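User: Teach me something about this protein's shape.
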Amino acid sequence: MKKRMGRRTFIKKSAVMGTISLFTGGLGRLFHLFGRDVPDISIVSGENYYTNTVKAVEVLGGMKRFVKKGSKVAVLANPQRNNPGAFTSPYIAEAVSKMCIEAGAAEVNFISWLPEKNWESTGLKDAVKRGGGNLKIVNLRDESFFRPTPVPLGKTLKEARIMKELFNNDIFINLPITKDHAGNKFTGTLKNMMGLNSPKSNRTFHKPDWKTNLNSITHLDQSIADLNTILKPDLSIVDATEFIITNGPFGPGKIFRPKKVVAGTDRVAIDSYCCMLWGLDPKDIIMINKAHEHGLGSMNLKKLKISELKT
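Assistant: First, the predicted structure itself:
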């Protein structure tokens, strides 16, 4: 059996990705895979969200580019609340699970500390099962399920408490929904990482006036950016199909329906694109700026190759 991924491996992978960027001329340059150019971000729109997901990954080179035969895959979806537009689409979750299995994954594990009732009420539990995946939920109140993890580059966050289940896997796929947020106005790939950090640790991100005070919002956003320095998804696939643009992150709220699935490996670029879908400027989202300052990705979409297709 392959050696499972540990904390140091995750951190080293982030450093390696930075080195690769240097040798390939930066995030905006193309690299070749299977004899063709691969975009930095793949966007597919259409009525069939399952098909959109499959096509978005195919444009990036297919799931076999990210998932090796015999590997165990951890998937972080968002079943936060069952209000429309507040949770990852079950169609997207099912598609990701099936693609991983078809790529040769030994296991596909949807990991979470949110209770099973969230997965049931959103339809995600059945979707995971249809896709051949497993649902692995840990007790959010039991800190023994979380590993104390230093954050060497953290400016406000010096230690995280990461779900131990993550380290039992070889590959990590981030599967958020983009939507409104009560404090920093936007949530996407970067903020979804809080789903791996223990709720007790996450509480330190939020000061009492985190919804209204700019300094407190900055503290929240810097903490999220800091957390992302120790967690590097191999692939991010964002549900931008239909989501709330008011009263986030729980809803109910006003629904916006771009009907898009957005995929790639640059979380900063993906979040920059997704917030622009509903008229936000990434320069106004502190979290995105802080992640950019950490060197986690590029906010300059003009320098990236973006593929947009319709199904």
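Now, about its shape. The chain has ten helices and 14 strands. Residues 5 and 167 are 5 Å apart (CA to CA). If you'd like, I can walk through any region in more detail.
User: That's plenty for now, thanks!
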